[in-house]
Each structure stands twice: as C-alpha cells, then as structure tokens.
Amino acid sequence: MIPVCKPSIGTEELKYVTDCVKSSWIGSMGTYIEEFENEFAKFCGTKYAVSTTSGTTALHLALASLGIGPGDEVILPTFTMAATLYAVIYTGAKPVLIDSEYSTLNIDTGLIESKINQRTKALLPVHIYGHPCDMDILAGIARKYRLYLVEDAAEAHGAEYKNKKAGSFGDIGCFSFYANKIITTGEGGMIVTNNEEIACKARILKNLGFSPEKRFYHVGLGYNYRMTNIEAAIGLAQLQKADRFISTRINNANKYNSILKDIDGIELPTEKAEVKNVYWMYGIRLSKDLPLTKDEMMQKLAQAGIETRSFFIPMHLQPAFKEWVGDEQYPVAEDGAQRGFYLPSSSDLTSEEIEYVCDSIYKIVKGSL
Ligand SMILES: *Cc1c(COP(=O)(O)O)cnc(C)c1O
Fold this sequence. Notes:
By secondary structure, the protein is of the alpha/beta class. It has 2 domains: 11-99 and 107-239, Aspartate Aminotransferase, domain 2 (3-Layer(aba) Sandwich), CATH 3.40.640; 242-366, Alpha-Beta Complex (Aspartate Aminotransferase, domain 1), CATH 3.90.1150.10. Helix content is 36%, strand content 14%. The protein is built from 11 helices and 14 strands. It has helices at 11-23, 31-44, 55-65, 82-91, 135-145, 196-205, 229-239, 242-260, 294-303, 331-339, 351-366; strands spanning 48-52, 73-77, 94-98, 120-123, 148-152, 160-161, 164-165, 172-176, 189-193, 266-267, 275-276, 282-286, 309-310, 340-343. A 7-stranded mixed sheet has the order 1-9-8-5-4-2-3, with helices on both faces. Strands 10-12-14-13 form a 4-stranded antiparallel sheet. A 3-stranded antiparallel sheet has the order 7-6-11, with no helix packed on it. A hairpin with a 2-residue loop joins strand 6 (160-161) and strand 7 (164-165). The radius of gyration is 21 Å and the shape is globular. The two termini are 17 Å apart. The protein binds pyridoxal-5'-phosphate. Pyridoxal-5'-phosphate (PLP) binds at residues 54-56, 80-81, 83-84, 126, 152, 154-155, 176, 178, 189. InterPro entries: DegT/StrS_aminotransferase, PyrdxlP-dep_Trfase, PyrdxlP-dep_Trfase_major, PyrdxlP-dep_Trfase_small. Belongs to the DegT/DnrJ/EryC1 family. The active site is at 181 (proton acceptor). Its EC number is 2.6.1.102.
C-alpha cells in the first residue's frame, strides 16, 4: 500500500531522542525545547516561538493569549479541520463560519466583511493543504476593523505569500506537528509571534498560569500545554531537514500535475502567482461530468494499493457543532468536499510511485481498472 502520508523519520531523530533518554531530560525542561523554539522562530521569520502539545492547543493558546472569550466572535472558514473550530469553542467565543473560494478552498475573503460586527474580535484563516490565504486582503480587513489576525498554519510549514512565511503575518501564527504534518514531533504544536507581550503571556498560560517569578504562585487561569524535550528533539531533527521535505513535496506536486493534466475530468490543485504552495496534501477534484464518483475512484485506487483521503467535511455539516454554528449554506465548501480527495503526498514519495498512482487514475477514468 502506498500510504497517503507518512512521516520521514531517520537517524537524526534517533540520535537526538537517544540523547534525551540517556540524559534523562524527558519532561518539558531540557535544552531541545529552547533550541527547537528558537530555530522554528527563525524558520518562520518571527521573533518568538512558544511550543505546545498539539496544533489544537496552539490555536487555543493563541486565542486565550489575546484575551478572546465569552461574548466575542471569531471568524473562520467552514472548510477546515475541526481543531480550528474547537479552539474557538474552548474560549467560549462564538465561531462565525465563512465559505471557501473555489480555486484554493481557502476562506473567501470577499464574504468576511458582511459578518463583522461589534463583537467580532479576530480573523482565523486557515492555509488549506499548504496554500497560503490572501494575506494582504486579510491583514487589510483586520486593520480596518481593528481585529486580531491569527493564522492556522498547521498545514503550511514553510509556505510563502509574497516571499514571507505563512504564520508570520498575523498577531499569532499556529502550527501543528502531528505525525502527518510536514514537520512532525509525533504530537505537538507551536505558536509564533513578533509581539513580546503575547509570547510572555502564552508562556505563562501554557504552564498552568505559574508566575515566572514566584514559585507555586498563579497569576491567572492556565493550561498544561507543555511540549516534552523528546518531542522537541524530534522536531529539531525534522526542522533541520525541512527545506528538503518542502522541495520534494513541491517537485512531487509538479510531477503529479505534469501527468494528470492530460486526463480529462481531473481538476488539479492551484498555486496563485504570489504564493509558494508547499502541498502538505496534493488534492484533486473530479469534475461533475466524469461517470464515476469520488468514492468509487477512491475505492478502486485502494484496490490498486493506493491510499487516499477525502477532503475535509465542512464544519457546518458536523453533528457535533450543530448548536455552535448557524444553518447557513456554504455551497463552495460543500462542493469541494464532495468532489475532492488527496493522493499520496509524503515527503518520501518516489517518482515511480507517482507514475503508478497517475497511471491507475488514467485506467480508472478510461474504465479499464
Ligand atoms: C492538523 C491541523 C490542526 C491541529 O492539529 P493537531 O492534531 O491538534 O496537532 C489544526 N488545524 C488544521 C487546519 C490542521 O490541519
């Protein structure tokens, strides 16, 4: 089976983890944490980075550090992974969903302003599948209405908009290091910011609200969102190889594009002129005039030993969030979700595997597989 996405872990990770175990620094103190944070801040082009236990907790910590809570509203896309929405719900603020634009399935920036009111506190865009959102427009809206801008960059390590890194535009950028993300620590997350005050506040909040000066004294409600030294050790090794992971993913996407563009009925992912898409996932959509559905295609690919994944199911269609979101229509997100799925996208994917996947798709479309 060609997996849809598997981490690329090697001897470097083993070396650093062994170092943690041998030195017995396996908790949330130890030198790898600080080194990973410093190097990750550098990687993003931001002044500060604060590690957390997951992308979900990074998002929650970001919103909490900005003081977002009950009575506030946060604007986010319906087409995302549930963690983005959960983070808003955890704060007690009201999530306000927005439909996608067609080409990237990122938040449709043209629909945002009509949803802004006195209670709106923040914009929370998501760089879907590694393609950055239109950051100039989002930053402009945030400035005009005095809103915080928090980026969910969980899928976009190293992606760029006008030569600037995803995660470095907003007040805070949030990353995930879950096992299938471009850089992984197994489970883990990070927030990045240029604001010292926010970074300090986040450090206190993620550590149960402990006062940095006085021991066992709590200055405010906090959480235990501390990353372990072992996770940071894996993360540091990953980060040192990140440029290679990213360039392979881009090459793989180009290779997929060059073959699949000749097959009728397959819509390829886009890359806008001003961005660097890092293709966390290489996603395609089947056009409506193909005689087979996405599920049939995915099933046939599975029979050929190729694992794929359906696009996200938009948040407004989730039973879990019924009481949190309204009953508006989000037709673009729904259409994308219905027709889209992603192909094997690991950093370690070989040319031969890509050719095999494309050849299988060709045969399925032609009806010979
Ligand atoms: C992966 C992901 C997260 C958070 O993931 P964790 O599993 O909590 O690390 C958040 N948002 C998006 C868009 C993601 O893809």
